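Fold this sequence, please.
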Amino acid sequence: MTPSRRLILASQSPARLGLLRQAGFAPEVIVSGFDEDAVTAPTPAELALALAEAKASVVAARPEARDALVVGCDSVLDLDGEPLGKPADAEEATARWKAMRGRAGTLQTGHCVYDTATGRYASGIGSTVVRFGEPTDAEIAAYVATGEPLHVAGAFTLDGRSAPFIDGIDGDHGNVIGLSLPLLRRLLTELGVSVTELWAPEG
């Protein structure tokens, strides 16, 4: 079975790429290079959506994306209404974990699928509540020293070293890792595309 359309992931995130591959897709990767600092929005959810739409549209405009479906995503942690992306440095990551422990935040992931064959796009937000545990100061310091929290939105991830410090989630697990497969399916459906048409051959 050969996919009916090319699928392009407009992200350098290995976690998003891994989720798509595990679900049977074989996406190409084209990084947008978009300046995220140039975007502002009233709420964390709106910011995540605006960033996802911007990334998808930038890649969709490129000649190499012709006749393809471009998927753009961006994640932001909403903690008390403040948008928290990737921490700037170890000091910020440490302060953030001390603020998050014992509390809950909402991981907002914007998704945008752009069909370059038609010029149409569909977008939406995935929201998952994350309940943080209570790591000690020593555990936070050790975690920050690994460098992992500097590369992920909210300074944590469910599929890495911070997993023991997260008590649970309410919502889609994949959304926290970086891409909600159920939401992706709904957006593709809006564009008249079935996920099964995009599955890569097995083996």
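The longest strand covers residues 120-132. Helices lie at 14-22, 44-60, 90-100, 137-145, 173-177, 181-190.
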